[in-house]
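Support reply, case 0932

Customer input (verbatim):
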Amino acid sequence: MKKLLPPLLLALTLSLNGQNAQNHEVTNNMPSFYQELKQTLTWPLAWGNSPITDFTEWRKEARKTLHECISPAPLFSCFNPKIVEAEQRDGYKALKIELNVSNWSYIPAYLLIPNGEGPFPAIVMLHDHGAHFTIGKEKMVRPFNVSQEIMDDANAWADKCYEGQFVGDYFASNGFVVLAIDALLWGERGRREGPHYDSQQALAANLMQMGMSWAGIITYDDIRSAEFLATLPFVDAERIGAVGFSMGAHRAWMLSAATDVVKVAAAICWMNTTEHLMTLTNNQNKGGSAYSMLVPGIRNYMDYPHVASIACPKPMLFFNGTKDKLFPVEGVKDAYAIMHKVWKQQNQESNLVTKLWDQPHTFNKEMQQETLKWIEGVLNNE
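Our regenerated output:
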């Protein structure tokens, strides 16, 4: 006589006979439940969602949470700057310097100083990602006394992304002190064995296993850059700004959210929402180039425009391109709307400039000119 199956096992058998078991759960590097995951993101610390109703108090709490997510900060004692080389250019001097951004990292940088007495306004000039690691600061400042290979690399990158103009030199020729450093893994802070795209994942993973994050180190290095500018006698510490393109734009609004040493920032071609970036077809889901901008745990509190809104009421400028394949236009519009609501509620809407250009992923001369004019107006109270 046949033994009867236990009720639970019988039910499982009938269920499997009725349908095929799922044989995969990842598509295009995304979990098949990514839509369900996105629905769990309620942004409880975003302004308007948080139970904190005083904006000043909310800003303190949101910034504290941001720092907790990018912490711990690399140990830091002093800048100990040293001039290595100098070159006189048309209207300004270009210095190659070395300085501490942490007790662990004594790094080269370019410092551009306008002719004259000062004190001058200053800009932390933040380079892009571009999956191009052989140069970093040289993407923003024309290098000197370098190999022909580096010179050609820098010129080619300026042509590709900046319409042939070095943005740092452009600002310096218009009266700004400019500081440009390499982010960790770029240029002279690159990989000893040579650039390799997949090393981003390994670097990020290794840092996480030692209690830190790559994005955190980049952000704190940028904070130290702004703080260094504030120590210079020829810099007006009340007129320090940040300008960046692509990953540099992410760095610009992160920096402005993280510290008030920076008084104004322009972020070119990096703003969106998780809803529109986390899809099966967006570049973000490929991983790789996202590692340098992944802040551990922050999505459990705030989305990108909410973090950028910590900068309010400071003047902020955001440009994006309608033909930019990396940042869907609908996501850009949603992010802009979120930020405008914050600045408007604080009676500071004139301090937030957002614009869509009929352009791809670029920071061309017209955009640079408009950015410069806006920053000059803000810092000169025009």
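We compared this against your earlier run and they match. Two observations from our side: The mean pLDDT is 94. DSSP finds twelve helices and eleven strands in the chain. Please reopen the case if you see a mismatch on your end.
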